[in-house]
Write a structure and sequence with these properties.
7 helices, disordered C terminus, three-stranded antiparallel β-sheet, FAD/NAD(P)-binding domain, four-stranded parallel β-sheet, alpha/beta
Length: 230
């Protein structure tokens, strides 16, 4: 099987000459990331990793592991990204996303120097595009059911993790399985991992769709951010 990062260079060779100046900057940014010493060494090569959950955390982790050389699979039970709640990003997160081409893929990404807010959906879309470019496989409408721990064999050593999903996917054995599905993480409970809330303040993004006029089909999106304290 070809290494996953080979897909990136194949895509670049096929489309680069046809792109405008701005779109070419995306490949220049990713080239710079691939040329960082730790990524050039590919320490995770020949590893197969599965991430359960295609939220911002799951997709960003998939991009990082793919850059490190791992064969990545991401499982997502939803069929589309529809979470419009607004996220406040730390400055270092904005910088990291910009280095992956976020401002090229989404020109309005955190335009203000002090107001670093973006919807979960938009963040997912940006990360998904980067993930697909670097060879990550995304399986939508795929529900994670269970994981079978590896078995120690005196002959072959430690076997890989086996996952059970519905519907089945082509690859079911992995070196590691990571849970990134939020509070519904099916990986934590079976092994007795308890969850803790580190911050008592929770923010909720409320999205209102208001009709502009009787004869207009377009809708104006009004976002209202509400903060609730325990």
């Amino acid at each position: 099987m070809a290494e996953p990062w080979h897909l990136y260079y194949q895509i670049k060779a096929a489309v680069y000459s046809k792109l405008g100046f701005r779109k070419k900057q995306l490949f220049k940014l990713l080239d710079a990331r691939f040329n960082v010493d730790v990524y050039k060494q590919k320490p995770a090569a020949k590893k197969r990793v599965c991430i359960v959950g295609a939220g911002p955390v799951g997709l960003r982790a998939a991009v990082e592991l793919a850059l490190l050389g791992s064969h990545m699979s991401v499982l997502e039970k939803r069929t589309k990204f529809s979470r419009e709640n607004m996220l406040h990003l730390w400055p270092w997160v904005v910088q990291d996303m910009a280095s992956l081409g976020a401002k090229i893929l989404f020109t309005k990404f955190c335009m203000s120097r002090t107001y670093f807010h973006v919807s979960t959906r938009q963040l997912q879309l940006v990360l998904l595009k980067v993930a697909l470019l670097v060879g990550v496989e995304l399986h939508t409408a795929t529900d994670f059911k269970a994981i079978v721990p590896p078995q120690l064999s005196p002959v072959s050593g430690i076997s890989p993790y086996t996952i059970k999903v519905k519907p089945k996917i082509s690859e079911l054995e992995f070196t590691a399985v990571l849970g990134a599905s939020g509070t519904n993480n099916a990986l934590a409970e079976p092994v007795g991992i308890e969850r803790f809330v580190f911050c008592q303040k929770e923010s909720l993004g409320v999205v209102c769709y208001c009709g502009v006029g009787k004869r207009r089909r377009r809708r104006r999106r009004c976002r209202r951010r509400c903060r609730f304290l325990d």
